[in-house]
TrEMBL record:
Regions that span the bilayer: 45-62, 74-94
Record keywords: Membrane, Transmembrane, Transmembrane helix
Region spans: Disordered: 1-24
PANTHER family given in the database record: INTEGRAL MEMBRANE PROTEIN-RELATED (PTHR41386), MEMBRANE PROTEIN (PTHR41386:SF1)
Biased composition, class Basic and acidic residues, residue ranges: 1-18
Species the sequence originates in: freshwater metagenome
Protein name: Unannotated protein
InterPro entries named among the record's database cross-references: DUF1003 (IPR010406)
Keyword check for Transmembrane helix: yes
Length: 174
């Protein structure tokens, strides 16, 4: 661990001590197992295995007696198929584990992205609500027009009252 951090730091001299252990990328075996598992799960592999098994059986049943290398019960074929299965199963499981790790990371990234989207949506909904509240305090054009019409009518009434001569009031002199 310390060796890795020291190797990545450029402000410190490189450690020149040699190790007898080969430095191997730990992902190499995982990538190789995924390639093998992907090939084993393909139709091409099924076709190759079918051709191999049929050729084996035909050669050992129909071929000349002196050329037959596997007896009637096909013990050699059983051994080959068992070896193939014993190596294929762990490789497939390793590939599945790597895929589940990738799925877990993807799930965590999706969850974080969803949380950010929800926070953004919540923020935007609060902003829209604040704008609606602010707009309720703003006077609208129709409100101003109605107020101006009312004021104009009041002014016209006041002007009309001032312009008309006062009506003579009956006097009580008698």
């Amino acid at each position: 661990m310390a060796r890795e951090t020291r190797r990545s730091r450029l402000d410190q001299p490189l450690d020149r001590s040699r190790s007898l252990r080969p430095s191997v990328d730990p992902e190499v075996f995982g990538r190789a197992s995924e390639r093998v598992a992907r090939f084993i799960g393909s139709w091409r592999f099924i076709a190759y295995m079918t051709i191999f098994v049929v050729a084996w059986v035909v050669f050992n049943t129909v071929g000349p007696q002196s050329w037959r290398f596997d007896p009637w019960q096909f013990i050699g074929l059983t051994l080959v198929l068992s070896l193939q299965a014993s190596y294929a199963a762990p490789l497939i499981l390793l590939a599945q584990n790597r895929q589940s790790d990738r799925d877990r990371v993807q799930y965590q990234e999706d969850r974080a992205s969803t949380e950010r989207l929800l926070a953004d949506a919540d923020y935007l909904s609060r902003e829209v609500a604040a704008l609606r509240i602010a707009l309720n305090d703003v006077t609208t054009r129709d409100f101003i027009r109605n107020e101006l019409k009312d004021l104009l009518e009041d002014l016209q009434k006041a002007v009309n009252e001032q312009a008309s001569p006062p009506s003579p009031e009956p006097s009580n002199e008698a």
